[in-house]
Design goal:
With 175 residues, the protein is mainly β. The protein is 9% helix and 46% strand.
């Protein structure tokens, strides 16, 4: 798949390293569940600025906070090693429906974050999944802020304006 088609894809994971000798990939998943991989049926995988290869998903299972992904055509540790550091994508059409107030991670990355007072805080750069809620990593003004993705803090998300408004709890931000 050429790079012009990447805009039709959504990143749902990243390969950390091989796992074992049979071609399993240890991955970080950005998908809500492993079912996203299974429903998509196939993924596009490759490193930045490289051609993406389409591979059918053989299996995926949880492994602690990570996942073990098995792709058809990747049957050895050597083949898996070639994919170390690769990104994993699926077609936009393969995404499941979301409920009102739900957002895909890719939709939130890069949006501007503002305090409810109008003060610009920075850009949402990363999202960490924790047991109870996600944590947004916002970078701005030479600092990094960790914002819990909870209704008490995140007051509004406007994707059309690429803007998030938060109301920090006491001591959340050291401004």
């Amino acid at each position: 798949m050429n790079s012009n088609h990447r805009r039709d894809l959504v990143q749902i994971g990243h390969v950390i390293r091989p796992h074992g000798l049979t071609g399993l990939l240890r991955i970080v998943s950005y998908a809500q569940s492993r079912e996203t991989f299974l429903k998509a049926g196939s993924v596009f995988i490759g490193k930045a600025n490289e051609e993406l290869a389409e591979r059918n998903v053989a299996s995926i299972k949880e492994h602690g906070s990570l996942y073990l992904l098995k792709l058809f055509g990747v049957g050895s540790v050597e083949k898996a090693e070639e994919l170390r550091g690769a990104d994993i994508f699926i077609c936009n059409e393969a995404l499941t429906e979301k409920e009102e107030g739900e957002f895909f991670h890719f939709e939130l990355l890069g949006i501007g974050v503002y305090l409810d007072t109008g003060h610009y805080l920075g850009v949402l750069k990363r999202i960490f999944e924790t047991g109870s809620n996600d944590v947004y990593v916002v970078e701005g003004q030479g600092k990094e802020y960790l914002i819990p993705a909870i209704y008490q803090v995140v007051k509004e998300i406007d994707l059309s304006e690429k803007r998030m408004i938060i109301s920090p709890t006491k001591d959340l931000l050291d401004l």
